[in-house]
Each structure stands twice: as C-alpha cells, then as structure tokens.
Amino acid sequence: MKKKLSLILLASVGLLASHIPTNACTGITLKSKDGNTIVARTIEWGGSDLNSQYVIVPRGHTEQSYTPEGVNGMTFTARYGYVGLSVEQKEFVAEGLNEAGLSAGLFYFPRYGSYESYQPDKKDKSISDLQLVSLILGKCATVNEVKETLNEIHVINIDPRASTVHWRFTDLSGKQLVLEITDGIPHFYENKLGVLTNSPGFEWQLTNLNNYVNLFPGTAPERQAGEITLTSFGAGSGFLGIPGDVTPPSRFVRAAFFQATAPQQETALKTVLQSFQILNNFDIPIGVEFAEGKIPCDIPSATQWTSATDMSNRIIYFRTMYNSSIRCIDLHTIDFSTTTYQAIPLDKEKQQPVEKIAIK
Hints:
The chain starts with a helix and ends in a 15-residue tail after the last strand. β6 and β7 form a beta hairpin. The chain is globular. The chain has an 8-stranded antiparallel β-sheet, with helices on one face. It has a 5-stranded antiparallel β-sheet with strand order 1-2-16-17-18. The protein has 6 helices and 19 strands. It is of the alpha+beta class. The longest helix is centred in the first third of the chain and has 16 residues.
C-alpha cells in the first residue's frame, strides 16, 4: 500500500513537470573581488504551490531512489552533510550546498533531454533525475568527482510524462559544469559564462548570444539622421532590443547581460545581495503564463523562490514568493555528525510579512 501511494504521488509530480509553459529557472554566477564565487537562481512553477522545504541532511543518512516501479532504486549514503531546498517532496532537492563547498542544482529541460530507459535489472545503479542533486551533494566535493560519479550510475525518469531536467554543479575553485543527458548519454559542458536557464540546450543558448552583439551598457550617443538629431529618451538605450519576454532563450540573454554589466562587489555578502537584486528582474507574474481566466491556482508569483549560495563561507540564502526577506542557513553552525535529518517548510506562514512603523 505504501508503495502504491508513493507512485500515485509521483504521478502527480509528473503531471506538474510536464506542464511546459510554467517551467522556468534562471541561474547566474558572480565573483567578488575577494575571490568568492556566488551562484544564484530562481525556480518557477505557476501550476500550484510547490510546498518547498529546506532539508538538513547529516553525514551517514541513507536514501533510496524512486523508480517507475516504486522505491526500489539505488541506495546511497551521504559522505558529506548538506543543506538543500526541495520541491514537492523532501527527497527532491532542486538546489543545495554541502559541507565540502560543492553547489548543485537542477533546472527544467523540457523536450530536449532524453534519459536512458529504465531497466529493472540495473535498478541497483539507477537514480531518479529529481534525486541526483541529493546523491551528488552527499558524495562529491568537486566537479571532477561529479563526472566520475555519473560514469557509475543510470539516471532515469520516474514518470514518462515528466519533463527532463539538466543540472549545474560548481565547486570551490569556481569551476562550473552543466550536465545534459540526451539519447541516454551524459554530456558535460564547462560553463565559463555562469548563466543557465532551460531549453534549448546550453550550447545553443551560448550561440544565440551572438544575435545580440549590438547591445552595450549605458546610453547610445546622439546621431544625425539627415537634418534630424536623434537622442535617447533616457538612460539604458544601449540595451534597446534586449528581449523582454519570459521564454528561456530571452531570459538567458538578459541574465548574461545583466550579469556581465554588474559592478564587481568587494565581499561575498555584497555579491549575494547583488545577485538577489539582479534576479528580481526575473520574477514572473503569475498572470503572464496563462490565457486570461485560465490561471490554475491562487499563488502570488510563478517565481516560488530565489536562492544564492556562498560556497566559500558555506552559506545558502533564499527568499520566497510569500516572504521577500532574505533568510540564510550557515552550514558552519550545523554539526553534520550529530544532527538529525530535518525537512522544514520554507514558509511557516504563507503571507508576506509587513512591518508596521510606529510613529511617536
């Protein structure tokens, strides 16, 4: 009965993930002057409240993967403790940081990814795509170890209706890899740009940036058009023509240019705060993703949470659609050898707090 209930719940997750118009994630990477790398991202889903949680995973915690048959995939035990932000179920960590300083996250990748088919005789080496972040955070300290781990396992879909995903991994050296699985084969790309969204594939997104070679920061100089002098209406006309819609290619372009033009900050904390300011531009209002009168749920935003990860200082920050205050978890305050496994909602109250100013 327990196995059957799990499959019913996973099927509902599959239906959510397959609803393409509301899948959106935007990731950026910033470096501070004192040498810290900050990875930040949004996660969107306009179909329902993802009921996200933060999970505290101790060293030695053992988890088993879901498969299309139930909870009978590979069993894996955490070598490193980690903190993750999960969606729908506590096991489905979408973004996280481990005590070794490795950051890992998944981004939706609909229509362009294709995993190998699940083979029951390989279930002991098979892991669901939504649990790969947990495996990597518990097992790996570097992106090179991530690549080695992928050679040993089979990444599968739990539900054939679900969207595929791709992944971003970043270690303390600042090296970042994007993993995309197509035709059942893992492909790693070094992400020197540090930006990631969704479909199409990462290499296509980089190529597409060449369409915007004319963009530049600041204001376009005035020029003559015959006897007429043309001047900008206001600041920022160097970016005139940058795509403003919420499709993944357009968000990739905007993120790349906002990131490239951001002034470098002195410290990791200032860079974290800067990343939240940049990602404010990628909050997706719930109404733009659906036809008029077809909004399926009552949530304040399609952007359900935004996170920023300071790997050097082992701190993961987040804010949510219900609470725009930035909160953080410092991994240095957690004894991963003695703490217990915990899964706690990101928001205890699903209402934006408002501070009332008392006037005397």
